[in-house]
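Supplementary material to the annual report.
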Amino acid sequence: KQEVTQIPAALSVPEGENLVLNCSFTDSAIYNLQWFRQDPGKGLTSLLLIQSSQREQTSGRLNASLDKSSGRSTLYIAASQPGDSATYLCALRGRGSTLGRLYFGRGTQLTVWP
Amino acid sequence: DTEVTQTPKHLVMGMTNKKSLKCEQHMGHRAMYWYKQKAKKPPELMFVYSYEKLSINESVPSRFSPECPNSSLLNLHLHALQPEDSALYLCASSLLLYEPLHFGNGTRLTVT
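Predicted assembly:
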């Protein structure tokens, strides 16, 4: 069964810092990987999707990378802002019979203070 | 603004009540999902519908009964719930099973 781990569990940084959130997984047979943010008591907002054949995706200040051989993905946030404060979750979609399932990590709770 | 709409936003129900959660999307997505999320935990998959047919049931207790009456609508019928079922219930949709998921804002359910 796919196991997804996110490190660190929590991160508190001053505004303006560049930061990296990590996601590791045990089974490299994935279809794609999706990064989400979740604000307290709200649903999940999709940030970036990386297909299995891709190495990275960028959107604004966000850059996500994927290295299947090492079972790792990173989310890079440039010039962090207080509005970036949220929980960030990575989720992997499996292949074949597991195609309908997303395997979530437990998330990184990010606080950016002014 | 989310394109997946969930109602109600909040629900408080007793253990003998019957209630339903509703989820609607008009993006033409053919896969719809129910997730349950407890505080400080990731979402847990409950059910997946693909082309209005139940594709995955993650061994969810029968007190939760999903229904997909058409391609835009997904319901979750609740009956005889337990206090430990209190959680945020999230609906999601995707164009097809392997496409990115779009989540609603959830229904906060409290069982008393």
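The first strand of chain A starts at residue 4 and ends at 7.
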